[in-house]
Amino acid sequence: MDNEDFRRHAHILVDWMADYMESVEDYPVRAQVEPGEIAARLPEGPPEEGESMERIFADFRRDVLPGMTHWQHPSFFAYFPANSSPPSVLAEMLTATLAAQCMLWQTSPAATEMETRMMDWLRRMIGLPEGFHGAIQDSASSATLCALLTARERETGWAAAEQGLGVLGGTGRQLAVYASAEAHSSVEKDVMVAGLGRENLRKIPAGDDFALRPEILAEAVEADLDRGITPACVIATLGTTGTGGFDRLGPLGEICRAHGIWLHVDAAWAGSALILPEQRWMIEGIEAVDSFVFNPHKWLFTNFDCSAYFVRDPEALTRTLAINPAYLASREGGRVIDYRDWGVPLGRRFRALKLWFVIRSYGTEELRRRLASHIAWAQELAGQVAADPAFDLVTPVSLALFNFRHHPPGLDDEAELDRLNERLLEALNDSGRLYLTQNRVRGRYAIRFSVGQTNTTRDHVQGAWETIKETAASL
After folding, report:
1. Is 452 helix (H, G, I), strand (E, B) or coil?
2. In this structure, are strands 174-180 and 229-237 parallel, antiparallel, or unpaired?
3. How far apart are CA 462 and CA 440, in angstroms?
4. pLDDT tops 80 at residue 171
5. Full residue range of the structural domain in which residue 256 is found
6. Where do the DSSP E strands lie in 125-221?
């Protein structure tokens, strides 16, 4: 493909992209295909001769699109959003065109210096105090892994990375990690990947508010100390995935400071809401936190992947992860930041550019307005669910998240209610009109509702409620 062909096809694709954004509501929200259906449309082997872009793009529309779930559909109420926006897409186009590998300052000074500035913009926007330094990770899972690795190294005197995890066995030491039973599953995976052992993850029960109970955490820490096990890291969650619980940083911080435990905060979803001053209650006690992560790619209209990871002690992070072969040396030395040392991957995309586009295009005032609207619409709908005699509000609304279930009057058999709500969820998702996800709340089957897609309006939220009621009545 020469440059003129590229220009022509690029215009065609951009026109299609704009049409897609305008007409995404015409698609079923969740892909309506069966397992293996898309694979059956794809040739088993690659072509020997090159094919025209016209044919490739036609096959994309015919064979690929039917298998896509449309996360940018305004009736996407499943999981947490993976938001996009026009300015973010434009920035991604430039990033793809530049195709820079931004591992060192020298390999793209603008990428490094913009990342430093964008992370400070985010820090100010969400109200983190000075003293936190940030880097963009691909996901909150990776950021939490960085926190666990740093905590592991600090507790082993920086020996585990050098001598291997056998150093722990040689001294008879074990390291323990603590998190709420409501914490994201990535915590358990990260504990496993960090070599700390899933058996050494203490899942602390949550209270009626779905938050980790500090008194039980304190007991677990003391019990481990009595057994000669070293408490290494506490992972607090702000806005748990299933129920929207908020661990209280103040009490957890007191426990961590008393025992020298690394305190990491996973605010992957809810952290974006900190741009609203009225939501800053959730970071009371932040002064005791060692690291903090939230995902602009969830609720700040920035294309995946873009996870903002903040640490108080960047030297501890880089000491944990830095590798310095001769071919990565540069004459700038200690005068610049090389973000390759701030995460697990060596390679890095120019992810700060889309943040720059999004924040400048919307402005903080419009970003605050949109998030406040999502929260208000979710609260309104949760109130309507609670007032309907045929439905139960299973969890209180938490920012823009709540859980509910259909509960027809007179039907009180729990197993039958579970089956009924599973049928309701399947019918809703099969309709293509909206997309929701299942949950289990204190053993009961529940339907989870999360507002946050970029172009969702109050009409979409209220329309979803009408669809839910109609579908439930039809069952």
Report:
1. coil
2. parallel
3. 24
4. no
5. 101-349
6. 133-137, 174-180, 201-204
Predicted TM-score of the model (pTM): 0.93
pLDDT digits (tens, 9 = 90+) for 236-246: 999 999 999 99
Question: How many whole angstroms separate alpha carbon 275 and alpha carbon 279?
Answer: 8
Check residue 326 and give its pLDDT. 64
Closest listed residue to residue 129, CA positions, set 20, 249, 7:
249
CA atoms within 13 A on the CB side of 433: 16
Q: Tell me how many domains the chain contains.
A: 1
Burial class (CB in 10 A: 0-12, 13-18, 19+), 90: middle
Report if residue 450 sits inside a domain. Answer: no
Positive or negative, the Cα torsion across 229, 232, 237, 238? positive
Edge to edge, the sheet with strand 291-294 lists: 133-137, 307-311, 291-294, 262-266, 229-237, 174-180, 201-204
Tell me whether residue 291 is in a domain. yes
Q: How confident is the model at residue 168 (pLDDT cuts 50, 70, 90)?
A: low
Q: What is the pLDDT of residue 158?
A: 87
Q: Which of 212, 201, 292, 280 is nearest to 251 (CA)?
A: 212
Residue 61 domain flag? no
Q: Find the helix packing angle between 140-155 and 185-193, rounded to 10°.
A: 50
Cα separation of the two ends of the chain: 55
Is residue 239 assigned to a domain?
Answer: yes
Question: Which sign does the torsion angle of CA 53, 55, 60, 64 carry?
Answer: negative
Q: Any idea what DSSP says for residue 95?
A: H
3-state secondary structure of 20: helix
Report how far apart, in Å, the C-alpha atoms of 143 and of each of 57, 194, 204, 291, 342 are: 36, 12, 21, 9, 10
Mean pLDDT, residues 165-182 taken together: 80
User: Residue 464's closest CA among 136, 121, 157, 78?
Assistant: 78
Other Cβ atoms less than 10 A from the Cβ of 210: the count is 22
From CA 9, how far away is CA 14, in angstroms rounded?
Answer: 9
Alpha carbon separation from 183 to 201, 268, 287 (Å, rounded): 11, 11, 22
DSSP string, 165-180: THHHHHHT-EEEEEEE
Edge-to-edge strand ranges of the sheet holding 437-441: 391-393, 401-406, 444-450, 437-441
Q: Can you give the CATH number for the domain in which 303 is found?
A: 3.40.640.10
DSSP string of 38-71? HHHHS-SS--SS---HHHHHHHIIIIIGGG---T
